[in-house]
Specification:
Layout: H1 16-20, H2 34-45, E1 56-62, H3 67-75, H4 79-85, E2 90-97, H5 110-127, E3 131-135, H6 140-147, E4 153-162, H7 172-179, H8 187-190
Antiparallel strand pairs: 1-2, 2-4, 3-4
Helix pairs in contact: 2-5
Length: 209
């Protein structure tokens, strides 16, 4: 199953899963099966990491198989996010182990690696007809307390997991966001071949405010 709403139109050809990846707020009531969840997090676990540390940890709540955990995670979200996230099939808390296991030293790349794992999961999700929506709007303190997460782990983000639904079911403000054209900065603003651009060569007039 392919989600073809608001597909990104990139400057150059990329994998279709990358162009179809988006962050929906409308979900169907179709459950995401345990097998599919396991595939998603297996994909996350395949990501690269510094020293092969694999610092990512995910606390998952499913409406079908672990409803108490689902409700706990939803309750840590900002009210704006709770309104739509409660309709997803599952939700996950992404956590980073902040020290290396082999020597106990701080791992400055832990959050970067958790981001890589989440991105890998997101692309696997598209392949399976699922979409995720990552959020920063949650209470780290509430989530830590709810799941007794140790001090040497840092909470990174929360993301919903589900099959994208009908945007017409959303309030007008959220529907507008869902249907707003997906754009990305031009390649020239993010890729500097040969070195960092000088002030004279930068063109801020084309930057999106």
């Amino acid at each position: 199953m392919s989600d073809t709403l608001n597909v990104l139109q990139p400057e150059h050809a990329i994998l279709p899963q990358l162009a179809q990846r988006r962050s929906p707020r409308a979900y169907t009531n179709q459950p995401v099966s345990t097998e599919t969840l396991q595939q998603l997090f297996t994909a996350a676990g395949s990501a690269a990491s510094c020293f092969g540390e694999q610092p990512w940890r995910f606390v998952v709540g499913s409406q079908q198989s672990s409803p108490e955990a689902f409700e706990k995670i939803v309750s840590t979200l900002a009210p704006f996010n709770q309104d739509w996230a409660k309709n997803a099939s599952a939700i996950a808390l992404a956590v980073a182990k902040t020290t290396f296991s082999h020597d106990g030293n701080p791992n400055a790349w832990a959050k970067h690696d958790v981001g890589q794992a989440a991105a890998t999961l997101a692309i696997q999700a598209v392949e399976l007809g699922v979409q995720i929506h990552q959020m920063a709007g949650f209470s780290q303190d509430a989530a830590r307390a709810a799941f007794q997460i140790p001090a040497d782990f840092e909470l990174v983000s929360v993301f919903t997991i589900g099959y994208p639904g009908n945007v017409d079911a959303l309030p007008d403000a959220l529907k507008e966001r869902e249907l707003a054209p997906r754009t990305r900065k031009p390649l020239g603003e993010i890729m500097f071949e040969g070195g960092w651009p000088t002030a004279q060569s930068e063109d801020y007039s084309v930057a999106k405010v």
